[in-house]
């Protein structure tokens, strides 16, 4: 075995399906090696495996989060899709659990530091000749760059939305690439105001494509305006306001937002009877709403509720 100042790694290229819990010292040594120009000498499959393991152990309470997050510090160097996929799936959980707190703001800054160099390299829109993995990498990095408040990501998304708004027939001509629409719509509404929100509402009222209507409604829920979020929730139980199949989509979109979770929770409490009446014979409607609320509850008060 190597000395105390050397790290070890098992299950090379994840040849078997099991997690490996190293001692804290070994995790620290691995973190130091990853955050160096030689990080690529650890195979990208093992880099993904390390990230998934360490963050899962932290989530289970078997490892302190500072130790786990040290492993992620190198990600600003990481170019491969798989390690980022493993990391962001787990970091997203942390982000949800500390939303609305001082730690939540600090964590957003931490995420921005990691994703910004990658976004600046990849940009928002696909490039000619890029591989499938490069496309997937660009999509996940772009999403988190805008969520984390990276200025260039927000600026590019808002500009693309603006180019759509000035089209002569925006219901027919949408210059925004299909794989960017959810991100661009949401970012524009979140960082815009009444004009952007009403523009999407008008597009929703004129759209007959179910995939696009769901995307438009979800983006309208990205507003920071509490009154608009309440309006959307009221639409979700008013016959004729939206398509009935979009009711659950709309509630979930509001509830998943930091600004919307508590509003959606209060709405469910106050309008329980109306929601049951609207749901009719669908026994799964209310449980679906409860599921999305519960997934973001993160305080002792929430537990009692």
From TrEMBL:
Family to which the UniProt record says this protein belongs: Belongs to the peptidase M1 family.
GO CC field: cytoplasm; extracellular space; plasma membrane
A Gene Ontology biological process term: peptide catabolic process
GO molecular function terms attached to this record: metalloaminopeptidase activity; peptide binding; zinc ion binding
ERAP1-like C-terminal domain segment(s): 7-305
Key words of the record: Cell membrane, Disulfide bond, Glycoprotein, Hydrolase, Membrane, Metal-binding, Metalloprotease, Protease, Zinc
Domain of life: Eukaryota
UniProt name for this protein: (California timema) hypothetical protein
Compartments reported by the entry: Cell membrane
Entry cofactors: Zn(2+)
Lineage, opening ranks: Eukaryota, Metazoa, Ecdysozoa, Arthropoda, Hexapoda
Main location: membrane
């Amino acid at each position: 075995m190597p000395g105390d100042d050397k790290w070890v790694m098992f299950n090379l290229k994840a040849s078997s399906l099991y997690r490996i819990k190293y001692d804290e010292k070994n995790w620290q040594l691995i973190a130091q090696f990853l955050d160096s120009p030689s990080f690529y000498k650890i195979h990208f499959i093992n880099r993904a495996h390390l990230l998934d393991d360490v963050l899962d152990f932290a989530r289970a309470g078997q490892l302190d989060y500072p130790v786990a997050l040290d492993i992620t510090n190198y990600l600003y160097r990481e170019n491969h899709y798989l390690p980022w996929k493993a990391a962001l799936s787990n970091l997203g959980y942390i982000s949800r659990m500390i939303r609305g707190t001082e730690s939540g703001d600090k964590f957003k800054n931490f995420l921005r530091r990691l994703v910004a160099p990658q976004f600046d390299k990849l940009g928002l829109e696909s490039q000619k000749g890029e591989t499938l993995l490069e496309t997937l990498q660009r999509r996940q990095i772009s999403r988190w760059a805008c969520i984390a408040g990276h200025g260039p990501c927000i600026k590019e998304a808002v500009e693309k939305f603006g180019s759509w708004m000035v089209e002569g027939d925006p219901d027919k001509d949408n210059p925004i690439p299909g794989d960017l629409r959810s991100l661009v719509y949401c970012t524009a509404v979140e960082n815009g105001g009444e004009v952007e929100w009403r523009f999407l509402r008008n597009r929703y009222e004129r759209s007959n494509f179910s995939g696009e209507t769901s995307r438009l409604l979800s983006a309208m829920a990205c507003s920071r305006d509490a009154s608009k979020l309440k309006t959307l929730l009221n639409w979700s139980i008013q016959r004729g306001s939206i398509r009935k199949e979009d009711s659950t989509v709309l509630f979930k979109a509001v509830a998943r937002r930091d600004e919307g979770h508590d509003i959606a929770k209060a709405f469910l409490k106050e309008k329980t009877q109306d929601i049951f009446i609207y749901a009719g014979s669908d026994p799964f409607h209310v449980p679906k709403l409860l599921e999305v609320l519960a997934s973001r509850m993160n305080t002792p008060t929430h537990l009692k509720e």
